[in-house]
Prior knowledge:
Blueprint: H1 3-13, E1 25-30, E2 33-39, H2 52-71, E3 76-80, E4 89-97, H3 103-109, E5 122-123, E6 138-141, H4 144-161, H5 165-173, E7 175-176, E8 189-190, H6 198-208, H7 212-218, H8 222-225, H9 229-232, E9 237-244, H10 249-265, E10 269-272, H11 275-278, H12 280-289, E11 296-307, H13 319-322
Helix pairs in contact: 1-2, 2-3, 2-10
Amino acid sequence: MDQTEFHSVVAKAMLAPSAHNTQPARWSLRDGGIEILANLSRRLPIGDPTDRDLEVSCGAAVEATVLALAAHGVGGNATLLTAPDENGLRPIARVMPGGEVNPEDAALAAQMGQRLTHRAGFAPTGPTAFQNWQADHMTLVTAQEQIDWLAAQIDIASARVMQSKPFRTELLSWMRLRKDSVGYDRDGLNREVLAMGGMTAKIVPAILGTGLFELLSLLGLGPSLSGEAARSRGAAAMALFHWPANESNVDAGRAFYRSWLLASARGLVGWPAAALADDAATRKAVSDRFAIPKDRVLFNTLRLGVANGTTPSRTRLFLRDVIV
Length: 324
């Protein structure tokens, strides 16, 4: 593989999703293979102290690399790496090009440019959207009563997580609320992506960055401050993603990304609700209610449905920023 082909593969692979759009994955062409590494400066030490989300995000990038190769008519085989961190980079996996392309990979590769996060709400979704769709790592919830319950749990979990001022400070550092914010069109969560109006964007830093949030929470307004229940209830389904506790989060990320691309192929958009997994009490409540096996861990949730309008285009770093 020459540099031109490598750059073309990475340009497609970097479309993979990541927590808070931190884009921690980095790519390197070494010894005929493509190495995926995690840039540790893009960790979320408060919100993700165990690096679960970092590894899941890089796992999505690993799968995206395999699929990007498939789009170029080349097969790919991924092997996880266990080398120590070096120079702020953590080796994640090596993808070796070669062999025949899996037809399913080629089909999913066609969805990589279509997959988008949509936070503005959902339009009515046809009854066949979720037919014949199941996976060992996913519990698909379509009953409205259960969706309503999950929507409430998302707000409860978010309110609990947001009680931490260090967490709010970290979150704010990845929010791009002004057009002139550094990285507005490159990374993090900008106003359009957050489906946030201009006035709201102006007051969010004053609430999240000060003690005002705690005061309002004491008055019982916590869930409404961070709440998304009204839009969440409009989802046609919620997909609960879980993975064996003793297996790799990188592999969990690969499976998560494939499922999201399968949703795109069905004409659906997704909206993650990671708070359900981040808050221990809510994670247990959800796992118990939906009989997730005890040896598996809930690691993310996707609200799924048909977009109710235009979805903002994704923001991505420059290609030169992600190649090392």
